[in-house]
Amino acid sequence: MALIRLLQRKLDGAIVFREPTSDHVPAYAILSHTWGQEEVTLQDIEAGADRSKTASKAGWAKIQFCADQAAADGLQYFWVDTCCIDKKNAVELGAAINSMFRWYQNAARCYVYLSDVFKAGNRANSERAWDEAFKTSRWFTRGWTLQELIAPREVDFFSVEGQRLGSKLLLAAEIHEVTGIPESALRGDALSTFSIKQQRSWAERRTTTIEEDGVYCLIGICGVAMVLNYGEGREHALRRLEKEIDTLYKGADFEQYAVRLNLRSFPEAAQFVARERELSKMHELLHGHSSRAAVVLHGMGGIGKTQLAVEYIRRHKEKHTAIFWLNANDEDSLRLSYRGIAQQVLQCHPSTSVLSSADLDGDLDQVVSAVKAWLDLLGNACWLMVYDNYDNPRITNNSDRSTVNIRQYLPESDQGSIVITTRSARVTQGQRIHIQKLTALEDGLKILANTSRRDSIENALVSELDGLPLALSTAGAYLEHVTTSFAEYLRLYEASWLKLQRTSPTLSSYEDRPLYTTWQVTFDQIQEQNAASARLLKLWAYFDKQDVWFGLLRHACIGDDESIRKLTEDELSYNEAVRLLCEYGLAHPEPSPSQGSRSIGYGVHSCVHSWTISVLNGEWDDGLARLALTCVASEVPSRNVDEWWLLQQRLLQHVAKHRHFIANGKMGVDGLEWAMHSLGDLYADQGRLAEAEAMYDRALQGKEEALGAKHTSTLSTVNNLGNLYADQGRLAEAEAMYDRALQG
């Protein structure tokens, strides 16, 4: 970086140059503006004897403004491009242009002086009368001001009167609207996280007086250095810039390893939404390292791992010499993917010695070895390999031949970049990033709007689909070509889940994974590894989707199901079973909203829960339903138990599930009158008296039929009904119940 020449205002008001040493550059302010008539030059400042002549120039007002504002901010030094560079010296000019991005980046403050924005305006009653003038300011149309906006940390905008309008952060939304630059870039996110194409797009609508400057103004933003050659023309300058960018990311000899991107080998990607944090993390882990970099994207099926990998490639493809996509679903698919890579490489480099002798129609293991040898060549370090759908990994001591050992398909040298997508949290061949549901409602709204091509999306449907990209895309594809309303779709979703999914159009971006089958493969793998885990998932259909814990399930040990008895015999067995569900993304730990000191429960995604009900338990299993009700009713605490209120709160959502089953006639409660009484107690304790009365009535009816009217258990329910009526002020009915209980 060239040494910066600063301005300093002395005590007598004189403005002079200060040329600091390279090891001590003082804090300074920097000016950003658009050039006009009569700018003050370096020669004007050096000829300081005739200050009145210099001060009479129109450009002097900007220098004076910068000096005053710097002093107000406690800064003695400042920099203005019109007079701090000797533009008559071509060497200095070239060095300055190559250093300017960092000069702005290192400034303590940047002042943007908008010569066409008046703060007063002509709307006396408006606090932001200058808004329109700000958005149409010439400053936003000039090429060089792009880096002056992006590079500094602190940017303040000022009107022509020198009045502060706001900071870059405060005005980020307005600046994004005018320039198209993402707000994250304005907030200071690293430029390397944005694609080269995206960075260049920010300058497309900007102009420069000299045509080559339209390219040179991107030097700093793209992070390269170039010799200036005014007169070469814009296109020639652009080709040189592109070569410098390629060299920066891919090395000087990148062309001998460059392979054209084969889009046919990539899955089709839907319009991408959100995941900016994950994309930034991927870039941080994959770029700027001298050794092998690998990332594992893991999460449940349908969560968008493949889409994320495709989007990462779309943004950063310029930073790799070659990008290859492999299907890691099984070993045969991996071998065929390697043969495709060999064909791609040979098309671009037919004389490549390590590949030219390989028989692509012969032994595919030899083809794999040949491709790996090419990837391991010294200097071939900028490739990216994506191993997609590595969902059946071979874990230690697992001899199942259907599993895949990915290690033998990874290049051996310590170079290049690797991305693996998998449903299993056990894959450890890289830095792991857990891909979870989209938490922002607006992200779900965008996906549904993009796929359905409708406006005014209803929040209720988006909330039900709970941030699962596959479910949102499936709903959008269905709604695109029918007149069904969002409310009607939600009704169908709840009433006829499986039929709705089967009649939905196939998604090109998920063509082999419709929503109703996407978790079946995972379930089959889980069942092979631990039958208790699979049985737990089936049982989960008869609980609420959230907050299932061991204390709740331990009451299932009384049943006849051997897998469930094994699951609930102790907490370690339960942890082993639920951990496997979590490793495959079908369940997740979640703190209970009212857990107090009690154990944390687990939850499943709402769409997975719908699948367990409609597909995994295709036919109603009354035995499992009654077992779940037994668990819930047995866990209801009495008032003399510590934190009884909090435990009852945790149970309410599960009780509501069973109340719905009973009301709809799905579940018989013969022999479970005690459970109805217990649920009545819970509702009564929680002050939900109407629900309590309904449960007590069911309990009383069943007990009278099974035990008789004078059995002590029957009379206990009668007494509780009396208490309930009394609490409601229904005293005559309460008296009748108490009389009956007393007589009994």
TrEMBL record:
<dbReference type="Pfam" id="PF06985">
    <property type="entry name" value="HET"/>
</dbReference>
<dbReference type="GO" id="GO:0043531">
    <property type="term" value="F:ADP binding"/>
</dbReference>
<feature type="repeat" description="TPR">
    <location>
        <begin position="673"/>
        <end position="706"/>
    </location>
</feature>
<dbReference type="InterPro" id="IPR019734">
    <property type="entry name" value="TPR_rpt"/>
</dbReference>
<dbReference type="InterPro" id="IPR011990">
    <property type="entry name" value="TPR-like_helical_dom_sf"/>
</dbReference>
<dbReference type="InterPro" id="IPR010730">
    <property type="entry name" value="HET"/>
</dbReference>
<feature type="domain" description="Heterokaryon incompatibility">
    <location>
        <begin position="28"/>
        <end position="116"/>
    </location>
</feature>
<dbReference type="Pfam" id="PF00931">
    <property type="entry name" value="NB-ARC"/>
</dbReference>
<dbReference type="InterPro" id="IPR027417">
    <property type="entry name" value="P-loop_NTPase"/>
</dbReference>
<protein>
    <submittedName>
        <fullName>HET-domain-containing protein</fullName>
    </submittedName>
</protein>
<feature type="domain" description="NB-ARC">
    <location>
        <begin position="276"/>
        <end position="432"/>
    </location>
</feature>
<dbReference type="Pfam" id="PF13424">
    <property type="entry name" value="TPR_12"/>
</dbReference>
<keyword id="KW-0802">TPR repeat</keyword>
<dbReference type="InterPro" id="IPR002182">
    <property type="entry name" value="NB-ARC"/>
</dbReference>
